[in-house]
């Protein structure tokens, strides 16, 4: 049997009661099991009365058999095993059958927009190339940082002078040098870093699911508040944050935006503590009770914070002890807190002290000191005590004073001690002086009219030139007198 197994040939005659054996071969697409069918087509004839045939149609007869490659004989043409490599993945492996390799490719945005990849069969050199066009939409992150903290000031004041005690005479003055020192001290708290974190999504159609965190250098996390967890396509989202810090040290603050599992973005900003945002009592006004307004100080003080000034103390018209207090004070500008410190100068203006004593020399026991009185510098009479002391201690300004005693009949008064014969006594500051008045009883009661006068120029017409004076001798004692003749003014009696 010859001819194509896929179509009918020119025809074969099959003998009556016999058979026809044909062979065939078919090229198949693959090794899949299938059914193979053979068709024998019988040519039908019509005969006329003479027995002549004419074609009259055909009748098909089919026979099928399964085609199974389970036990097929394989004739290898080429390579039964090949190695495959890839531009991106490298060596994919070895295969002797159909196989598919899957592998990821990580793309870095901004490097290229088109990615070509070729796989090659090493043994045959056959290859296939695919390309991928990347549209990379990176999130854009920006942030701000503002530092803030509160500073509260407290102040101290100290006042001093170059003297604390003075001794002055009546009418004397002295310049005292005062110092007022003002010092500020501050306490800072509530250190914060605040700001905004802005996330922009340039993707035209896909929102970006993000997680936003913030941390300041040193591991101090910020509390972040965002309006959403997704940044809209082609839009942006602004978050705020607050980080509590331990001090006013400048530090870097970092915001981190995690875009799902795709990428992580960061942005930095410096937290600059250049100065406090809130200050309390940073300024004081300084005053002085004697000097008045001294000035204004504001912390921190970089210049002069000591006020130096002289102040004249005195003069004092009266002796005695005087206190000169002087207080410096401050008041703060916000809370009105006050503070003060004072310095007191004790001024001693020494007085003079005058004591008056009475001595009575009389044979009469009834004549005692309290029978006598005296006046001090023209004042009211002062009666002595029975023991001869005065009930008054005369504390006086430095100077000269006069002690006088009214005339007492039968007694002659004389002044001694620190007094002169006229009863004048001088006491300076710090001195104690004593004036003693001695009263001597005159026996026989000699009066001035009974004293003798006499003339030495032998001219009776002009009177007598001298008068005899009889005075008790205090030093020699009672009953002894001195008789003196004198006329110091050339007076004629």
If you had to describe this structure to a student in words, what would you say it looks like?
This protein is mainly β. Helices cover about 0% and strands about 55% of the residues. It has strands at about 35-45, 55-65, 80-85, 90-95, 115-120, 125-135, 140-145, 145-160, 165, 175-200, 210-215, 220-225, 230, 235-245, 250-260, 265-270, 280, 285-290, 290-300, 305-315, 320-330, 340-350, 350-360, 375, 380-385, 395, 400-405, 410-415, 425, 430-440, 455, 465-470, 480-485. The strands form seven sheets. Strands 7, 8, 10, 11, 12, 13, 14, 15, 16, 17 and 20 form an eleven-stranded mixed sheet that branches. A five-stranded mixed sheet has the order 9-22-21-18-19, with no helix packed on it. A hairpin with a 5-residue loop joins strand 21 (about 320-330) and strand 22 (about 340-350).
Summarize the SSE layout with pairings.
Layout: E1 34-47, E2 53-67, E3 82-86, E4 90-95, E5 114-121, E6 127-133, E7 140-143, E8 146-161, E9 165-167, E10 174-200, E11 208-216, E12 220-225, E13 230-231, E14 236-245, E15 251-259, E16 263-271, E17 278-280, E18 283-288, E19 292-298, E20 306-313, E21 320-332, E22 338-349, E23 352-361, E24 373-376, E25 382-383, E26 394-396, E27 399-404, E28 411-417, E29 424-427, E30 432-441, E31 453-454, E32 466-472, E33 481-486
Parallel strand pairs: 8-17, 9-22, 23-30
Antiparallel strand pairs: 1-2, 3-4, 3-5, 5-6, 7-10, 8-10, 10-14, 10-20, 11-12, 11-13, 11-15, 12-14, 15-16, 18-19, 18-21, 21-22, 23-26, 24-25, 24-27, 27-29, 28-30, 31-32, 32-33
């Amino acid at each position: 049997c010859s001819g194509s197994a896929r179509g009918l040939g020119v025809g074969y005659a099959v003998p009556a009661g016999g058979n026809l054996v044909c062979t065939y071969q078919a090229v198949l697409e693959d090794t899949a099991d299938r059914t193979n069918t053979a068709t024998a087509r019988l040519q039908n004839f019509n005969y006329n009365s003479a027995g002549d045939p004419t074609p009259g149609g055909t009748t098909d007869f089919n026979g099928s058999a399964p085609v199974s490659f389970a036990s097929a004989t394989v004739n290898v043409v080429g390579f039964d095993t090949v190695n495959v490599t890839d531009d991106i993945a490298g060596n994919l492996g070895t295969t002797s059958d159909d196989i598919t390799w899957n592998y990821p490719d990580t793309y870095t945005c901004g490097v290229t927009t088109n990615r070509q990849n070729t796989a090659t069969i090493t043994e045959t050199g056959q290859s296939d190339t695919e390309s991928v066009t990347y549209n990379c939409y990176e999130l854009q992150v920006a942030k701000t940082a503002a530092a803030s903290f509160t500073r509260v000031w407290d102040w101290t004041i100290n006042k001093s002078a170059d003297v604390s005690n003075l001794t002055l005479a009546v009418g004397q003055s002295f310049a005292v040098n005062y110092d007022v020192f003002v010092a500020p001290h501050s306490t800072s708290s509530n250190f914060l870093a605040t700001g905004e974190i802005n996330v922009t999504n340039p993707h035209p159609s896909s929102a970006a699911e993000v997680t936003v965190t913030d941390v300041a250098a040193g591991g101090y996390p910020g509390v972040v508040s965002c309006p959403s967890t997704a940044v809209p396509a082609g839009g942006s989202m602004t978050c705020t944050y607050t980080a509590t810090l331990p001090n006013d040290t400048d530090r870097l603050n970092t915001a981190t935006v995690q875009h799902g599992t795709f990428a992580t973005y960061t942005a930095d900003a410096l937290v600059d503590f250049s100065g406090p945002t809130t200050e309390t009592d940073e300024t004081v006004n300084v005053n002085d009770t004697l000097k008045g307004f001294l000035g204004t100080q504001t912390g921190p003080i970089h210049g002069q914070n000591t006020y130096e000034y002289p102040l004249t103390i005195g003069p004092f018209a009266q002796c005695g002890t005087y206190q000169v207090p002087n207080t410096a004070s401050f008041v703060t500008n916000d809370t009105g807190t006050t503070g003060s410190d004072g310095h007191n100068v004790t001024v001693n203006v020494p007085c003079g002290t005058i004591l008056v004593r009475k001595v009575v020399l009389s044979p009469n026991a009834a004549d005692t000191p309290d029978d006598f009185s005296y006046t001090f510098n023209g004042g009211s009479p002062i009666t002595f005590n029975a023991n001869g002391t005065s009930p008054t201690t005369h504390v006086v300004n430095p100077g000269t004073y006069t002690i006088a005693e009214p005339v007492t009949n039968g007694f002659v008064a004389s002044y001694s001690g620190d007094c002169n014969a006229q009863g004048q006594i001088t006491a300076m500051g710090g001195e104690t002086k004593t004036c003693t008045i001695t009263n001597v009883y005159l026996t026989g009661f000699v009066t001035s009219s009974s004293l003798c006068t006499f003339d030495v120029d032998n001219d009776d017409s002009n009177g007598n030139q001298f008068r005899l004076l009889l005075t008790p001798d205090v030093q020699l004692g009672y009953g002894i007198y001195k008789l003196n003749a004198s006329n110091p003014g050339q007076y004629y009696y």
